[in-house]
Amino acid sequence: MKRISRDEIAARVARDIPEGAIVNLGIGLPTKVANYLPKDKDIFLQSENGVLGMGPAPAPGQEDFDLINAGKQPVTLLPGGSYFHHADSFAMMRGGHLDICVLGAFQVARNGDLANWSTGEPGAIPAVGGAMDLAAGARDVFVMMELLTKEGESKLVETCTYPLTGLRCVSRVYTDVAVFQIEPGGVVRVVDDVSGAGQDELRRMTGLDLVF
């Protein structure tokens, strides 16, 4: 079984973002999605610190550190893009104006619960930040993560054991092994076996009764 890379996960997410969508890319791994959005589609990237119309990452040496995303990474601005006060950005997020947000996660439960801000360990970040607003406000929540922890445990679980970011909010999970759709009633459907693992192996890895 050949697991796909983080860049390949980002490219797979980008394939599912439709024309005209307003999308927030979370801190960390999700920011890679910007580099794989098709240039022939109008897709509008929003950042919670107050940017709309972000483009891909700047070329080395072309960074403008007055133009950054919420993770303090330098970004580019497409023609027609804008930046504004973060209070307006949070009003956009909380008001249901985002079509999709793409977030990382420590765990996703089969009912769509999301845990992505803390493992509860000493030294962990002290607050959930804007992830809670995104999880509650976006029409669709896509999660990007590697399927297994370093210890080999599935991050796609029956019930989250880490502090929750949002309840029943995740609609799709993109991993290095497969893409999973979270459906009503706790149904987890495999929509793309990107690694070729097969049904039995995916069920073994997740410990869930997956639907294909």
UniProtKB/TrEMBL annotation:
Gene3D superfamilies: Glutaconate Coenzyme A-transferase (3.40.1080.10). Keywords: Transferase. It comes from the Bacteria. The keyword Transferase applies. InterPro entries: 3-oxoacid_CoA-transf_B (IPR012791), CoA_trans_fam_I (IPR004165), CoA_transf_AS (IPR004164), NagB/RpiA_transferase-like (IPR037171). The keyword Transferase applies. It holds the Pfam family CoA_trans. PROSITE patterns: COA_TRANSF_2 (PS01274). GO terms for molecular function: CoA-transferase activity. NCBIfam families: pcaJ_scoB_fam (TIGR02428). Belongs to the 3-oxoacid CoA-transferase subunit B family. This is 3-oxoacid CoA-transferase subunit B. The lineage of its organism: Bacteria, Pseudomonadati, Pseudomonadota, Betaproteobacteria, Burkholderiales.
